[in-house]
């Protein structure tokens, strides 16, 4: 009888852990260099789809949001990254400071709801560094229109009026109640993290002090509203002057950010890196660009592990079909290079927690093509590589879940033996 009770308890725990592997309805947290979900490490093999809100705002096009997220889940992808901003312009989320387009917000509601249905977590970016979709320039223009005298886009990071505009946007998004699910964004576990800015740059202050202060202030502000979600800065990964020796790992430019000090801010929960050697090393051949990429991946993983003690995601990478000498095989090589570095770290319990290619699209979205698009039905070889990575990272999570199950079973057996 004693053995039967223990056996039945073991079966219960095993089924409980198996269900936790499938049902991803908790908030993602961090423990050291790992993301954690349901007491097991979580890996972010994922994609970028900046357009989800925009397409989701058009009921006649919403099927593309649904099919993209369904396809992503079918191929084992676990995280998507998308915009929670569109400032002024032809299809705004925010018409002007504090005035919002409800139709566009409902598009974002739909994207979040569909992601949740497909058990995909989302990273939502809150503003753009660039002029596309408004960005920091639009905020500065708004302030100038209200009597400020600002001459640089980089005043976005220092001017008190502009910062208040942005804080209001943060608060509006975080406290938004989803019109479909009825859940406030700040309470929705479908959202994995808030991203302060897509690729923040402050060229007017190469010291990095301006960016350091801004990231610290805005990350703290988010945490004051929302204690459930993770926060990341949106960095590309460029090193700054806090350690001059690391500048050698940058491409030959600096943008006022510092991968080390920016990510050491207490309210920044994990590090991000973008990887575009063909854009950064124009004129260099494929071999030189690939060598740069390999080193770029390695040094950032090492620094996340040994200096930051935080997870790291390679949040954008890809290879454009519009580049000189492009072949699908060269794109496959780049994907394999990124994924192999992530796998090499993750399989040993290291800080690399995933990669997110730019960008996943549905069929029938020709106007959104930028050369980097991945449409599974059109890209069989790279699709196989993506699925292989999903499977490899999922095996690590299952391994940890089973180990956790054994620990629970041993504790249960000890309690049972103690009682009897």
UniProtKB/TrEMBL annotation:
Main location: secreted
Gene Ontology biological process terms, A to Z: polysaccharide catabolic process
GO MF annotation list: mannan endo-1,4-beta-mannosidase activity
Keyword annotations: Glycosidase, Hydrolase, Secreted, Signal
UniProt signal peptide: 1-19
EC annotation from Swiss-Prot or TrEMBL: 3.2.1.78
Enzyme type, top EC level: hydrolase
Ranges that cross the membrane: none
Gene3D superfamilies assigned: Glycosidases
Catalytic reaction list: Random hydrolysis of (1->4)-beta-D-mannosidic linkages in mannans, galactomannans and glucomannans
Keyword Hydrolase: yes
Domain Glycoside hydrolase family span(s) in chain numbering: 27-359
Keyword Hydrolase among UniProt keywords: yes
Localization per Swiss-Prot or TrEMBL: Secreted
Gene Ontology, cellular component aspect: extracellular region
Family that this chain belongs to: Belongs to the glycosyl hydrolase 5 (cellulase A) family.
Official protein name in the record: mannan endo-1,4-beta-mannosidase
Native organism: Capsicum baccatum (Peruvian pepper)
Organismal lineage: Eukaryota, Viridiplantae, Streptophyta, Embryophyta, Tracheophyta
């Amino acid at each position: 009888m004693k053995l039967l009770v223990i056996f039945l308890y073991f079966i219960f725990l095993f089924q409980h852990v198996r269900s936790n592997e499938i049902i991803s309805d908790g908030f993602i947290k961090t423990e050291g260099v790992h993301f954690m979900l349901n007491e097991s490490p979580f890996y972010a093999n994922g994609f970028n789809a900046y357009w989800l809100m925009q397409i989701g705002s058009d009921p006649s096009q919403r099927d593309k949001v649904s099919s993209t997220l369904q396809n992503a889940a079918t191929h084992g992808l676990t995280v998507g990254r998308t915009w929670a901003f569109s400032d002024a312009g032809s299809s705004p989320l925010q018409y002007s400071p504090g005035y919002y387009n409800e139709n566009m917000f409902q598009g974002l509601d739909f994207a979040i709801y569909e992601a949740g249905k497909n058990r995909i977590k989302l990273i939502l970016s809150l503003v753009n560094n660039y002029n596309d979709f408004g960005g920091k320039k639009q905020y500065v223009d708004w302030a100038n229109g209200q009597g400020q005298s600002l001459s640089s886009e980089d005043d976005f990071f220092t001017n008190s009026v502009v910062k208040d505009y942005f804080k209001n946007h943060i608060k509006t998004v975080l406290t938004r109640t989803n019109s479909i699910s009825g859940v406030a964004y700040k309470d929705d576990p479908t959202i994995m993290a808030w991203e302060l800015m897509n690729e923040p740059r402050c060229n007017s202050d190469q010291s990095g002090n301006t960016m350091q202060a801004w990231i610290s202030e805005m990350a703290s502000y988010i945490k004051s509203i929302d204690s459930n979600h993770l926060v990341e800065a949106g960095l590309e990964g460029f090193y700054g002057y806090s350690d001059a020796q690391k500048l050698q790992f940058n491409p030959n430019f600096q943008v006022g950010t510092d991968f080390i000090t920016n990510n050491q801010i207490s309210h920044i929960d994990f590090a991000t890196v973008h990887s575009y050697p063909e854009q950064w090393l124009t004129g260099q051949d494929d071999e030189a660009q690939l060598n740069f990429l390999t080193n770029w991946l390695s040094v950032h993983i090492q620094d996340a592990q040994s200096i930051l003690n935080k997870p790291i995601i390679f949040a954008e990478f890809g290879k454009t079909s519009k580049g000189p000498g492009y072949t699908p095989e060269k794109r496959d090589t780049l994907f394999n290079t990124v994924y192999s570095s992530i796998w090499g770290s993750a399989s040993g319990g290291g800080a690399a927690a995933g990669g997110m290619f730019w960008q996943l699209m549905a069929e029938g979205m020709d106007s959104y093509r930028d050369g980097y698009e991945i449409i599974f039905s059109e890209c069989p070889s790279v699709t196989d590589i993506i699925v292989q990575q999903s499977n490899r990272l999922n095996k690590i999570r299952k391994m940890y879940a089973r180990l956790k199950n054994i620990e629970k079973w041993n504790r249960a057996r000890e309690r049972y033996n103690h009682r009897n």
